[in-house]
Amino acid sequence: MILHGRWVEDSPLSQRDGADMSGKRDYYEVLGLDRDADEKALKNAFRRLARKYHPDRSDEPDAEDRFKEIQEAYAVLSDPSKRSQYDRFGHDGPGGGFGGGFNVDLSDLFGGSDIFSAFFGGGGGGGQRSRRGSDILYRHTVSSEDVMNGADEEVELELPTSCVPCSGTGAEGGVLDTCVECSGRGVLSRMVQMGPFQTRQDRTCPSCDGRGKIPKTTCKACKGRGRKEQSTTLRFSIPAGAEDGTRLRLRGKGEPGRDGQASGDLLVELEVSPHPYFERSRSDLIMSLPLGYADLALGTTVTLDHLDGKPLEIRVPKGSTAGDTIDIPRRGFPRLRGGGRGDVVVLLKLHMPSKFPRQVRAALEELREDMAPKDLEARIRDEAEARRRGG
Ligand SMILES: [Zn+2]
Ligand SMILES: [Zn+2]
Hints:
This protein is α+β, with helices and mostly antiparallel strands. Helix content is 21%, strand content 27%. The longest helix has 15 residues, at 39-53. Residues 1-21 and 107-128 have low confidence and may be disordered. It binds zinc ion (ZN) (2 copies).
């Protein structure tokens, strides 16, 4: 299970100690690590903290924010290129820092259970945040057979749904008060001296998380979160020819919106399991076929089970050479766009056993003269000529 999030600069974490100009805490500090911590230490720290602060399991009042913070820190530090960028430039790295999506695989941390939560809200900048529910990314593994033929899937997932007793407000009886700290604006502003300039810096009000409203009494059923995880059956179709990374959007199946706003979407990202011998190139399937010398010399036909359910017949013509390719048209994957199918491309290889039985060896000795090029020097010149011509 993969959790996915978009991080916004304007985060309620900006109040924390040790925050820099961007309002974020140092990632190493978040995970309680030295700057030279290795991969293992990083993983252990993340594991420990993610368990402690996972919002579905933790009773800490700021669990959700801490969890987001931990997730982001880990997403950046566990990626060597992002980490070195962070080490050099901090949060304000080139290209807008680390505002991209973070994918953190939590499946090994929580025994493979389906866990959704802590998706970073959209929007950004000052002002009251949009309360549309966040999108949820769910990775779904499919086989090459499914990609070839298409498939209808049905999966059972724990998905966040709006809490019924409080109608998703997080407040007992749905009663909300105006936030005192921000006077209902959802943001706090302050003037900051930046060199010769005075600039206004807005940040999301940490008391109300940008809502401008606060529950009069926290809803007991959802601990004020406004949503609960519920087992939900999802049905979707895998389009024939789908690629690794193809995303299906299930509208309104994401995190419920707050305060009457629309729900987010659920994005199903397809992960195509690698095939034991086919390699994919667009809609073509490429494979290597190792054959003995006799099969290459005399020609042969090889029949394999194929993903489309019909046998795949590979006709190797006599006089074939290692490196020749055989194109079997329209037996590759269906094209996602434009229709038709790709090809199967077979690359011939010469299989050379490391040991020969005595009689094979004797036969080869006998054939050596007959199979040798008649005029070796002329052949060498021909090869050189072919290479010059770009062969
Ligand atoms: Zn507020
Ligand atoms: Zn509730």
